[in-house]
Write a structure and sequence with these properties.
Layout: E1 15-17, E2 20-22, E3 27-30, E4 34-40, E5 47-51, E6 58-61, E7 63-64, E8 71-77, E9 84-89, E10 111-112, E11 136-139, H1 141-144, H2 150-154, H3 157-163, E12 167-170, E13 174-175, E14 188-192, H4 198-211, E15 215-220, H5 232-235, E16 239-245, E17 248-251, H6 258-276, E18 280-283, H7 297-312, E19 317-320, E20 342-344, H8 346-357, H9 373-378, E21 386-388, E22 393-395, E23 407-410, H10 414-418, H11 432-443, E24 448-452, H12 472-488, H13 501-506, H14 511-514, H15 520-535, E25 545-550, E26 554-560, E27 573-582, E28 588-593, E29 600-605, E30 620-621, E31 647-652, E32 656-665
Parallel strand pairs: 11-12, 11-24, 12-15, 15-18, 18-19, 19-20, 20-23, 23-24
Antiparallel strand pairs: 1-2, 3-4, 4-8, 5-6, 5-9, 7-8, 9-10, 13-14, 16-17, 21-22, 25-26, 26-27, 27-32, 28-31, 29-30, 29-32
Helix pairs in contact: 6-7, 11-15
Length: 673
């Protein structure tokens, strides 16, 4: 990349990605004695930058780049960080920069020049989190604390460390209209929401998270742009009429002029990783990213993000949200995939939710009485080339062979809670025993778990949809659109008004409940389950074999470490966990098939009194008394295939889970059938 004589060369430490020095090559770039402005506007006949404050105040013309089509540039002496500016297209009123790093006056206001080198990072020893080690805590900055800021969220990180999570996931923070929004109406994709604390506030939160040993996942939205304050279409062909998303016009990733649109989105991902040190990006609803080019948007993004991570010496992850049940998202390109690191597995949520609540409206009809939790413990997609009644078509694709750490499971998240008229949380839908069972089903599953803020102590405050738009017509359209969605899903009830401030205030977490008699028992269970995950290698996603047997009302899952030969360890011992679940309203004898020699010992039961349970537990599963095997037969660990009795049972209370552990000493390879 060539630099005019008036510009400084890139600062030491800038990262080179595909031959581009990694400092943003659009927007406002601060140099020692000047600021370079660069904007893509291919249909403009003239362009100027209006600087509203500081020594360089006034209008300054931009010239067309001699090397990049549609790009206008100028280097302005005396412009400084902190100055407000906007671009005038053909002498019209100034507009916010499409690559604005800061919008202190909101989405309709002027942009602010930011020098990204001024923040003093202290996380140089941080190298990220491996996908299998993620325990994700999803939070909304505005409702996570009373203050609703990055700084206030940082002050709560020690509580999350004590809980046992390893990463926080921030719902989108790109600038949106007003002060109240989920974040999916963002329009200034490079500018962290000013009311949350802006650029430095987000950097402070990430830096603090790393100091606490927590990774940071940032939710980003590349499938649409919000409806208010969206000026991108004035600059160039950012949108296309060829496709349509449920949220508005589709972003133009494969039509005329799409090269620069893709660059705008891909640079945004690199920007969060390089300038804000985030560890992973959660890509919202990737089924709404329409791109039929030969090199897909997602595959190219994966290549660039992982290349940047390698150069930075950090583990950097890409996580997809998708309702397609398509494992190609996380398969490597050499296997015909897109090379992402993980994807949400909504079938796990839907199956557990339907089993515990009995709900069968909308998409839950595809799971109630059809899928069992045992099914989604065995495979993350229940619908893998299977007919789905709600969709009225065959849905999904088999994930066979894909490591389990590639799938993220939840029992609550912002979508499944917030896309209800009143934002009802699980604690408002089921009694405590089923909340405890849900926690165990999630945290003992073979997948990467995601918790939604407050679920760990049974938060009852709703998480409803909320906005603060300025256009009455748009507000009415949002209300009507949300109601249509509820009607289509068969959900009854009048929605909380998304525009009302009272709706937003009701959604704030009640931190006093966390350590109260109502919240502490469940919180203790979450802490103990997460401690068990850390202590037992067999619970690490992808580390163990999972063998499932069961039915709709009960199932067992054996998590067992594979046999590893070690020339320094002749014992060849391996650890196993037996998870037993009763998913019905009465106590029952759950069958345990085994010809294991020895006994299982109880590690955890959701019925322990410290968790609010009845105290009814079976503390050991005794060894089966059977005739000794032939002298030439190998020792077997357990056989879940329905071919080999004996079968014994364990008495499980209603809506409960228990975990048993034991060690095995194999004498031969393949001791488990």
């Amino acid at each position: 990349m060539s630099y005019p004589a008036s510009m400084d060369m890139p600062r030491e430490g800038d990262v080179d990605v595909d031959g581009r020095s990694w400092q943003l090559h659009r927007g406002a770039t601060v140099h020692t004695h000047a600021v370079e402005f660069s904007v893509w506007a291919p249909t403009a006949t003239s362009m100027s930058v209006h600087i509203a404050t500081g020594d360089a105040a006034g209008d300054h013309p931009l010239a067309q780049s001699g090397t990049e089509r549609g790009v206008w540039t100028a280097t302005i002496a005396k412009a400084r960080a902190g100055d407000r500016y906007g671009f005038r297209i053909d002498d019209a009123d100034p507009l916010p920069d499409p690559i604005s790093r800061s919008q202190p006056d909101g989405v309709h206001g002027l942009s602010e020049i930011v020098d990204p080198t001024l923040f003093l990072w202290t996380d140089q020893a941080w190298h990220g989190v491996a996908m299998a080690d993620f325990v994700i805590y999803e939070l909304h900055v505005g409702t996570f604390t009373t203050e609703g800021t990055f700084e206030a969220a940082a002050a709560r990180l020690s509580d999350l460390v004590a809980l046992g999570v390893t990463a926080i996931e921030l719902m989108p923070v790109a600038s949106f209209p007003g002060r109240r929004n989920w974040g999916y109406d963002g329009v200034n994709y490079y500018a962290p929401q000013h009311s949350y604390g802006g650029t430095d506030g987000l950097k402070h939160l990430v830096n603090a998270a790393h100091a606490h040993g927590l990774g940071v996942v940032l939710d980003v939205v590349y499938n649409h742009v919000g409806p208010e304050g969206n000026y991108l279409g004035r600059f160039g062909p950012y949108f296309t009429d060829v496709y349509r998303t449920p949220w508005g016009p589709a972003v133009n990733y494969d039509g005329a002029g799409s090269d620069n649109v893709r660059r705008w989105a891909h640079d945004n991902a690199l920007y969060w990783i390089a300038e804000f040190h985030v560890d992973a990006l959660r890509l919202d609803a990737v089924q709404g990213i329409y791109d039929f080019g030969s090199l897909s948007f997602l595959e190219e993004l994966s290549d660039e993000v992982h290349d940047l991570g390698r150069q930075l010496g950090r583990k950097v992850q890409l996580i997809a949200e998708s309702d397609l049940n398509d494992p190609r998202l996380v398969r490597p390109p050499k296997e015909g995939g897109f090379g992402l690191d993980a994807q949400w597995a909504d079938d796990v949520h839907h199956t557990i939710h339907a089993a515990l609540t009995g709900e069968s409206h909308g998409y839950y009809q595809d799971f109630a009485g059809i899928a069992t939790v045992a099914d989604v413990y065995a495979e993350p997609f229940f619908y893998a080339r299977r007919y789905a009644p709600h969709r009225d078509r065959v849905h999904g694709r088999s994930p066979a062979g894909v490591p389990r750490q590639r799938f993220i499971a939840s029992i609550q998240n912002h979508d499944q809670t917030g896309n209800r008229p009143n934002g009802d949380r699980l604690a408002s839908l089921v009694p405590p025993d089923r909340q405890r069972l849900a926690a165990a089903l999630l945290l003992l599953s073979p997948y990467v778990p995601l918790l939604f803020m407050g679920e760990e102590y049974g938060e009852t405050a709703p998480f409803a949809y909320f906005i603060e738009h300025g256009d009455p017509t748009l507000i009415d359209a949002v209300r009507a659109g949300r109601q249509r969605e509820y009607d289509l899903l068969g959900i009854s009830g009048e929605q909380l008004d998304p525009q009302a401030e009272s709706t937003f205030l009701r959604c704030r977490l009640d931190w006093a409940r966390r350590e109260s008699p109502d919240g502490l028992p469940l919180l203790t269970l979450y802490r103990d389950l997460l401690a068990l995950r850390r202590e037992e290698p067999a619970l690490k996603p992808g580390a163990s074999e999972t063998h499932v047997q069961g039915a709709a009302e009960w199932f067992t899952a054996l998590r067992i470490m594979p046999l590893l030969y070690d020339i320094y360890d002749a014992s060849r011992s391996r650890r196993a966990l037996l998870c037993v679940f009763n998913l019905c309203s009465h106590a029952m004898n759950v069958p345990i098939r085994s010809d294991a020699i020895g006994a299982w010992k109880l590690r955890l039961s959701t019925e322990a009194t410290g968790y609010g349970g009845t105290g009814v537990m079976v503390h050991t599963i005794p060894a089966e008394q059977t005739a000794p095997p032939p002298s030439d037969a190998p020792k077997r660990l357990m056989d879940i295939a329905p071919k080999e009795p004996p079968i014994r049972t364990i008495r499980m209370p209603a809506w409960s889970a228990a975990v048993y552990t034991r060690d095995f000493d194999d004498e031969v390879s393949g001791g488990y059938a």
